[in-house]
Amino acid sequence: MGCVKLVLFFMLYTFLCQLVFSSALPHLCPEDQAHALLQFKHMFTFNPNASDICGFPSPKTLSWNKSTDCCSWDGVHCEEMTGQVIELDLLCRGLQGKFHPNNSLFQLSNLKWLDLSYNNFYGSLISPKFGELSSLTHLDLSHSSFTGLIPAEISHLSKLYVLRIRSDDPYWLRVGPYNFDLLLKNLTQLRQLDLDSVNISSTIPLNFSSYLTTLPSQKEFSNFPTWNTFLYLTIP
Ligand SMILES: *[C@@H]1O[C@H](CO)[C@@H](O)[C@H](O)[C@H]1NC(C)=O
Ligand SMILES: *[C@@H]1O[C@H](CO)[C@@H](O)[C@H](O)[C@H]1NC(C)=O
Ligand SMILES: *[C@@H]1O[C@H](CO)[C@@H](O)[C@H](O)[C@H]1NC(C)=O
Ligand SMILES: *[C@@H]1O[C@H](CO)[C@@H](O)[C@H](O)[C@H]1NC(C)=O
Ligand SMILES: *[C@@H]1O[C@H](CO)[C@@H](O)[C@H](O)[C@H]1NC(C)=O
Ligand SMILES: *[C@@H]1O[C@H](CO)[C@@H](O)[C@H](O)[C@H]1NC(C)=O
């Protein structure tokens, strides 16, 4: 009998603990990161036509606001224990505007997953600051109208598993002469590399697929080592 009481007591105790704990921590998301996200939101306008592939996206990003925990915002994921923002999934969000190097997103230094594809950052350069997000394992900047040289700093992201920078037009994005080599040599965890319609001016080594992490059975790639590169590699 005493034993049952004891068990009941512990069940009640843990229940109360959880209650107190969860009400004491209503906002898991660190304030500076919520602030950075709100700043990010204000740097862009919403245009449902920003990318014609997306249909008509709903302005969910725009519902980000201070009255709720940023970990519950659409497209934002936090690490459970620490509340740090680790994932930002902004694919097809109708974001439109210039992506300046002072973008507050670069303050989110714990990001592991970043998807900015299918928005419209018309004519923005890919900032070398992407190379400072050193925890990234997944980076997708495809079809968002970035232009210019893909910065060599991308090869600092040595934890990258997936790198996708597809361009709409081979005249828009380039990889510099030695940078493709750098990417292959430094991104040792890479499983998927997608640079469709990016102008790769360096010679692509014939054995380039062996640089991608070689666990499994199947490698799939198409390779036209000229300026109009279609390069898509994946190791499932
Ligand atoms: C988006 O496209 C639709 C249909 O083409 C058009 O009616 C609408 O005005 C456009 N909206 C914006 C914000 O450009
Ligand atoms: C704040 O965000 C919540 C959840 O997304 C939403 O329901 C609410 O309407 C928003 N408030 C404002 C003032 O935008
Ligand atoms: C960021 O840089 C751009 C271009 O240099 C500038 O127009 C803008 O005001 C800056 N924004 C902030 C918040 O500093
Ligand atoms: C390769 O990755 C390491 C570790 O992130 C970094 O320190 C180094 O600068 C990178 N080298 C190049 C050439 O990008
Ligand atoms: C690709 O880059 C090379 C070297 O920078 C340049 O000569 C060529 O015109 C570029 N091709 C396109 C389609 O932009
Ligand atoms: C690819 O070939 C080059 C020279 O032909 C060699 O130095 C390099 O080690 C090879 N890389 C891999 C991953 O097999």
From TrEMBL:
Span of the signal peptide: 1-22
Principal localisation: membrane
Record field: transmembrane: none
Gene Ontology CC: one annotated term: membrane
The keyword Repeat appears for this protein: yes
Pfam family, one: LRR_1
Topological type in the membrane: Single-pass type I membrane protein
Protein keywords: Glycoprotein, Leucine-rich repeat, Membrane, Repeat, Signal, Transmembrane, Transmembrane helix
Residue ranges annotated for the Leucine-rich repeat-containing N-terminal plant-type domain, each copy included: 31-78
Gene3D superfamilies the record matches: Ribonuclease Inhibitor (3.80.10.10)
GO biological process entries: defense response to fungus
Compartments reported by the entry: Membrane
UniProt cross-references to SUPFAM superfamilies, sorted A to Z: L domain-like
UniProt name for this protein: Leucine-rich repeat-containing N-terminal plant-type domain-containing protein
Lineage of source species: Eukaryota, Viridiplantae, Streptophyta, Embryophyta, Tracheophyta
